[in-house]
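Bug #2210: token dump truncated for Anaerobic dehydrogenase?
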Amino acid sequence: MSERDSEGGLTRRSLLKTVAAGAVASTAGCGSILSSSSSSSLTRGAETAYGNCWQCHKACGMEVTLNGAGEATELHGIDGHPRGSAGEGTKGTLCPKGLSQLEKAYSPERIKQPHIRKDGELQKVDWDEAISYTADRLEDFADEYGPESLIEFHGWGTSGVFSTLFRNLYGCPNHVPHPTPTCFGSMAVTGTLMGLGGGNIRWIDYPNTEYILVWGRDPLESFAGQWEAKQLLKARERGAKIVTIDPVYTETAKKSDVWLPVEPRTDGALALAMANVIIEEGLYDEEFVENHTHGFEAYREAVEGKTPEWAAEKTGLAEHDGLGAETIREIAIGFAEAAPAAGITSWTGLGQSADHQKGAQNVVALTALVGNIDRPGGQRWHTSPPLSDPFEVGCEEELPNNAADNPCYLTDKESGYASMTGKPVQNRVPEMVDNGDVRGMVYYYRNPVTDGAAQEWLGTDNQEGALEKMDLVVGIDAFWSETTRKADVVLPEASQLEKPMFESGGYGAYNEHPWITGSQAAIEPQWNSKPGFEIVSELGREMGYEEYFPWEDKTAFINDQLEAVDLTLEELEQEHDTYYVFDDEQHRNPYEKWKGGGFAQGAEEFWFDLDKKLEGMYGKLSERVGTEITTGPQWVEPGTIGDELTEDYPLEMLDTRTVEFSHGGDQALSLPLEQLAESYGLEHEDYRGNYLVIHPDDAGERDIEHGDMVTIASEHGEAELMAAVTVGIRPGAVSVEPYGFGRGSIQPDGDGANNMLLNSPEQIDPVSGEIDRHIAVEVSPGGDA
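Reproduced locally. Full output below:
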């Protein structure tokens, strides 16, 4: 029996244990080869340096202990840090992702120097040759195919210079953003269209809240910085009620007053039933609804008849003693009565399915119904301090936008390459390559192979994939992956400890004041790697755009940003321990900002009904799926747009994040892999990859035991990984934890499964372009150990 089963649920290592015991990490067993090059921004001869963790791009502050040789030996959090603590006077800590950055810096698995493809093979070259070769190839590509035939993918951390070079200057109009297809597209796009804002369904005013709905999210394991998990727990200690709605018994569910294990993709039914109770009981905010919203009658009509009894059947909660209609009614009343000091934190759980757009609309509508938007204890709108535009400060020339002159294939709605809202769809890129519309790709801090349609990107034994068909693939990365191994140019990126970092604060621990955080490089770039900012800047200068890249390094670029607040990065680091909070009245973050500035995208009202924005688009969607899809809130049965479970594929696969990894990006590191194995009680197994979480009932029917290798298959593909059997997931659902792994991405015989091998190009949310990660599957015993 596993440790999880012995306690009747998941026993993943909790955040509290991790941050209490994990303030220090060691480099024992890691290489410590130092580059002979120097960095002008490096803190030398000091026992302590600083950093900002960028593994999940939340910039938690790091205090770095150096030995006499300038090597990092320990990492600690920074007290009071806006992303790494709960606020002023509280302890700063680092999660396993942050602590693993010590191993990452010295990992022998890193890409150690530039490579270019010669005679079909990737070969090592020096930086001068790599930059010159890349610039020449890009120039030749533009001459032969046009920059509109290039597509660019990038994640976080290049301060805009990546898109500046390839979109504004080179003229590539095709950009696949990071959050929409990868993270929470259905929720983000829907929240933006309705007026709440794309990410604001996540941010609760924790210091003032009384009631929290954690909806399809696990902020104690997948948080936007340590501040969020800590403030959630502080709210709990203060007496705030917490309700978790999730098919998986998460760390947050274990700390909640109520866990509602809904069937996947039925969240919209629960939200409509809550609204039914709130409206019928007269508990909604009539003043806010009447004066600040649009389409309430469509909302009222949508919830008519959607009683808690109806929702209990739709969500499967009726199967659980004590979690039926009466519980739904109690939660709806409790949430409404606590409002506006009541909030919802939701994310990927309602963002990663083709069926989730309507579910997301139903959930977001609750925020306006109870009038909790940007009010104490409700959905908090954060602000950032006013900073200088580095291009206006540092560049003599006005930045052009050459991409505007080129046709954009991705957002041509008639081509099928875009979602209904015009967002580019990364699942369509292989098709674009087949059609000759895309001939090349550049990417930074991304691996599109693990984002969706993996087979089409990688190919099969009998057919080349999109990566091999393209004429030019340029990648900037720290580790080898499926994508870098097939690239024509591979440029090795520095790790977080080896480059300056800066974040201009929005959401964070200081709910009433904006903030900034930044740090210089703590150690020398290892081997022959370089910070991404320097790589892109050198390439831009080589391509003839010298006037737009005048900065010696990223520190100078950041200092131009800080000019508006009369600070430098060195002062921020040395005098303020990497962060500064603007606590004066001038920079105060007031509540109810919508009274003066409107709602998201300049809307004057919150939109329950999207009739004036997406009416024609929903009509097209209705024609395609054969069911009327309205512009207002609506219940849409699972399988209407996404997969329908069948006799051959009776289980619903979803995927989950864990505290050890972000998008699987550091799966080459032994420390987080070991921690992940220990969290499932599988550290004794000769396997270090991700896991398939499955309920004992489903496992027993298939003769699967805890620690067995299994094959998970859909109509489109299959993958192999290890099973973790636990009652901490509802029967009928299985979860790949965490997603983002890829077999063979680091070593040819590496463990772990890319579950996007099961996803096909057609499996997307047509409204947002979100990759559908809820897939009908079957699981069978057997697989390679």
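Output looks complete on our side. Residues 1-45, 744-748 have pLDDT under 50 and may be disordered. Marking as cannot-reproduce; reopen if the truncation happens again.
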